[in-house]
Design a protein that fits this description.
The protein is α+β, with helices and mostly antiparallel strands. 25% of the residues lie in helices and 29% in strands. It has 7 helices and 12 strands. The strands form 2 sheets. Strands 1, 2, 3, 4, 5, 6, 7, 8, 9 and 10 form a 10-stranded mixed sheet that branches. A two-stranded antiparallel ribbon has the order 11-12. The longest helix has 14 residues.
Length: 300
């Protein structure tokens, strides 16, 4: 039986309410975990991605000896303790040098895990230019046929979108598009590039867009893959009925957001249509017309 926790303080009550299921989920928190043996390269990769995910991220400074593909118990414990559903685990060994494992959890159980080997890396510090502000929502771009055709790459694309998408927003201004993350899949390799958007004058209302690389820059190779079954994946993607947008009949909106409605009415009989009560518009009966005619003859 599941243990029911009753809060004793207001702080504990708020914490439980924050963890409770919601129609609109909170922004997902990511864990960045260092393995028992890590290289300087992997440590810097974790720090750079942690800078992108702040403030919705937790960086583990101590080393943790884990084997995610053999035993997921520790990862699930960290996920439940920190209320985080995303994780990135870095390690380094002779058999698997400069290794990254990116994954996500559902109901505090590991859902998907994909292993990536770092072959080439340039950090944020290697690019001597201005950076984007922390916590900004990035624009994600994917290019390459494997992201559309290969099943493993499709799930990797879905995982990367879930990992880097940032907070859910309803509107965004043009000047708010400052950061672009580009993922390219070519010849079995995955290339990650990060750009800063510069809006220049163009002589018109639409500015000229220039991309300036700010790092980090990674060349990755796909390794081991552990994906959830189709049934479990559909269950994790299921949305409550209250969160689904219901389509209302005969109501539409134009490009400016104006709401338009269409009304269906039966055919009206114009003979029975009530007009304004004016003396000139009143209908005259047949007898009234005869009486008026007799009066005119007498006067003549």
């Amino acid at each position: 039986m599941q243990r029911i926790v009753k809060p004793k303080t207001q702080r504990a009550k708020r914490a439980l309410e924050n963890r409770a299921p919601k129609l609109i989920e909170n922004t997902k928190t990511a864990l960045f975990i260092k393995g028992g043996h890590t290289s300087e390269l992997i440590t810097q990769v974790l720090k750079d991605f942690f800078a992108f995910k702040k403030p919705d991220a937790v960086l583990f400074k101590r080393k943790n000896v884990l084997r995610p593909f053999e035993d997921q118990t520790s990862l699930e414990f960290f996920s439940e303790k920190n209320d985080a559903s995303l994780f990135m685990y870095g390690s380094h060994s002779k058999k698997r040098p400069h290794n990254l494992i990116v994954g996500r959890c559902f109901d505090y159980h590991v859902l998907d895990m994909i292993e990536l080997r770092v072959e080439k890396f340039k950090s944020l510090a290697d690019f001597k230019n201005a950076k984007c502000s922390a916590g900004i929502k990035p624009c994600l771009m994917f290019s390459g046929e494997p992201f559309e055709q290969d099943y493993d790459y499709k799930r990797l694309k879905n995982l990367l979108v879930d990992f880097f998408r940032g907070p859910v927003i309803s509107n965004i201004r043009l000047a708010g598009l400052e950061h672009v993350l580009h993922f390219a899949a070519v010849d079995g390799k995955i290339f990650i590039r990060s750009y800063r958007v510069n809006l220049k004058k163009s002589g018109s209302r639409t500015p000229r867009v220039e991309l300036e690389e700010i790092g980090p820059s990674l060349d990755l190779a796909l390794g081991r893959v552990r994906l959830a079954s189709e049934d479990l994946f559909k269950k994790a993607m299921k949305q409550p009925k209250q969160a689904k947008i219901r389509k209302v009949k005969n109501i539409s909106r134009d490009v400016f957001g104006t709401k338009h409605g269409r009304i269906h009415m039966q055919k009206q009989d114009l003979n029975t249509l009530q007009t304004r009560k004016m003396k000139a518009l009143k209908r005259k009966s047949a007898d009234a017309g005869k009486d008026e005619g007799m009066v005119k003859k007498k006067k003549d």
